[in-house]
């Protein structure tokens, strides 16, 4: 007999019919900003809304100071936020 908690598999996934067990982990959030790659420019590269529909997509960024425009190859988009688990004091 099929376990009710683990329902029928549909295209490689399924509904999970029980309450998920939750663990809360404290995290620290950082904002990542792309520094303009042009020499002697202190601007930041900011996503300008344009993209090339590649895989991964090319999100275009324009410098806030010199207007240099480019898209990083790995589909990154800036600014963005990253979170890391807060390490417990030892
Ligand atoms: Zn610049």
Q: Can you describe this structure in just a few lines?
A:
The chain is mostly beta strands and 90 residues long. The chain has a domain at 35-85.
Strand order of the largest sheet: 2-3-4-5
CA radius of gyration is 21 Å
User: Which of globular, elongated, flat, extended, rod-shaped describes the shape?
Assistant: flat
> What's the total helix number?
0
Q: What is the terminal-to-terminal distance?
A: 47 Å
Structural class, please?
A: mainly beta
Identify every distinct bound molecule in the structure, by name, code or SMILES: zinc ion
Measured by DSSP, the beta-strand proportion falls in 25-35%
Helix content class: under 10%
Count of β-strands: 6
Instruction: Write the H/E string, N to C.
Output: EEEEEE
Task: Please summarize the sheet with the most strands.
Answer: 4 strands, antiparallel
Instruction: State mean pLDDT (0 to 100 scale).
Output: 90
Low-pLDDT residue spans:
none
SSE blueprint and pairings:
Layout (H helix, E strand, L loop, with lengths): L26 E6 L1 E2 L8 E9 L5 E6 L5 E2 L9 E6 L5
Antiparallel strand pairs: 1-6, 2-3, 3-4, 4-5
The structure holds zinc ion.
Zinc ion binds next to loops.
Descriptive keywords:
4-stranded antiparallel sheet; two-stranded antiparallel sheet; binds zinc ion; flat; mainly beta; 90 residues
């Amino acid at each position: 007999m099929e376990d009710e908690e683990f329902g029928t598999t549909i295209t490689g996934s399924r509904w999970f019919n029980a309450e998920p067990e939750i663990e809360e982990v404290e995290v620290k959030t950082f904002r990542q900003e792309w520094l303009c790659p042009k020499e002697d420019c202190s601007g930041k590269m900011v996503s300008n809304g344009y993209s090339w529909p590649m895989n991964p997509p090319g999100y275009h960024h324009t410098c806030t100071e010199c207007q240099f425009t480019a898209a990083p190859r790995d589909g990154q988009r800036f600014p963005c936020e990253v979170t890391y688990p807060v390490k417990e004091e030892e």
